[in-house]
Amino acid sequence: MTDLVVRRAHDADMGDIARLCWAYRALLVERSADIVPGIVERYYAKDSYAAMIADLPRIHARPRGDIVLAEHAGAVVGCAMYYPLGPDGVTEIKRVFVDPAARGLGAGRALMADGRRRAAADGYARMVLDTIAPLTEAIALYERMGFMPCAPFYAPDPTFAPHLRFFDIVLEGTP
Q: Which architecture characterizes domain 4-170 according to CATH?
């Protein structure tokens, strides 16, 4: 982990961010195909996902959001991003993903910790996230980092609701 750096993304990083987001989508397809067929197309249809990726700099714009990247040996290997969920001091962290070749370096934990720290510094009191049940490694990380199961913070499609997991954490005192 000596070569791992977490930093704020820049405009020049959009190619790496897009690559990581598409790899995240591919992981969702792989992990959900037999368990939750159709969930990726429902929430991440290719055309709308491509448009959303192009819009990430606006969606996660400062001062109310951010995109953070993990670099290892000079290469961008992971991302995480947050933005306001509403006017009540809640932020959602999204698209936390680490390239499979870089797993085991602590990048996921570092991205989550840095995102929490930045969101707390931005004045958020609570961070939420959602994931799918087959992403067991991500769920284990969230739980190790103190995230607790919570009620859905949006109205999920009833077909997929049993396969979604929702978590939150209070950001006060986040390092």
A: 3-Layer(aba) Sandwich (3.40)
